[in-house]
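re: ur question from earlier - yeah i can do the single chain one, its not a big deal. heres the input i used so u can compare w yours
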Amino acid sequence: MNIVVAGVGKAGHALVRQLDVVGLQGSGTDVDVLREARAAKANLVIAATSTDETDIVICLLGRGLKEVMIAGGSRIAAYLATRLLDMNIAVKIIKKNPDEALDLALRFPDVTVICGDGTDQATLLSENLDGMDGFVSLTDNDEENVIISMFAEQQGVEHVVPKVNRVELGFLLENRASPMP
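and the output i got, formated as tokens:
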């Protein structure tokens, strides 16, 4: 099994101690480093850095994407949108709060910003969820993130990353290829 671990803090260090490891020095958010690590062909990409934003970017960059949908998230969504746009990846963000949606639309004219509920299945389907290469769920509710991510996978989205803060919800993610703790 080919596993890529990005970040060697406490969690990353504990993981790599138990694996047969070939080390590679560089930034996990650098596409060339991920390419050299063969992340796109890995069975599992584990992002274990100190920030959620970086972990999400690593999980997505480890795969070739053309269009990504982001549900929720303010700071993280903006950071992720910036990184994805830099790589010429189309981004669609769904924000429930009208003021935050407007702020994102003004800040990122190249991003499609939808004012709506990113956990509503009808909204996601009407915004072409099934045509996306990637989906990131960044709401403030771990359970919603897991459930809506499972829905995205059922719709055929290949690369799905839910933001989950509560480790005890890991059992819900056991069958997933790239959970982001």
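Strands lie at 3-6, 44-47, 67-71, 90-95, 112-115, 134-137, 159-162. not sure if urs matches, ping me
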